[in-house]
Amino acid sequence: xxxxxxxxxxxxxxxxxxxxxxxxxxxxxxxxxxxxxxxxxxxxxxxxxxxxxxxxxxxxxxxxxxxxxxxxxxxxxxxxxxxxxxxxxxxxxxxxxxxxxxxxxxxxxxxxxxxxxxxxxxxxxxxxxxxxxxxxxxxxxxxxxxxxxxxxxxxxxxxxxxxxxxxxxxxxxxxxxxxxxxxxxxxxxxxxxxxxxxxxxxxxxxxxxxxxxxxxxxxxxxxxxxxxxxxxxxxxxxxxxxxxxxxxxxxxxxxxxxxxxxxxxxxxxxxxxxxxxxxxx
Length: 281
What we know:
Oligomer: single chain
Number of strands: 12
Strand order of the largest sheet: 1-2-5-6-7-8-9-12
Number of helices: 10
Shape: globular
Radius of gyration: 18 Å
């Protein structure tokens, strides 16, 4: 019954396009920019995703490449878009009072494309480029990160992806203070790793997070997302560890389940996160 009420409220707010729920949370004072990966709402346009993110009480977004822009703006989210298109995207963000803090997961094929990606991030005010580059690309990625002072956050898709283990992330983090981890705590669980232990291993190199809680209860033994605090990602202990590390940066809610209507579950997760943040020392 509570879920149905939450779903109805979410639907009504989205339907009427209200943009008054995005708010400062208690985590803001610690420099935690809690927002959402727009991939959570991948079935919708970027403009529609912003409306849903706002309705979840969030004011930050991590955009992903390839999402249709919508809202009267043609094209897709692409770091190669021209200045005029970027201005249109900025207008969408301003309309909903949402700030783009990260972009990913994105890769570029060569040094010239990486320069374009950094220029895009600079113009859009992006803090973190979340990526899984080829190892040989660090020869020019590290100097570019130093030049632009924009974080290159290495994302950990599950094993056997190249950055599934904190060991590989630390290897490349030594190349620049702007290279570190985009810590996907749910994917660590999928790889059989303890997310708290991984964060401890990466202490000082956690630049941002993909925040999800997952549980293995499907017939095929795969994990799926659940409302935060109800799965195996040790959400309370993760928040405690981030506080201990004095973490600052983007935290992107990434809810990869119930794609057609997962807004209520994201909103419930945000509420749990903020309650836990205030409770955990």
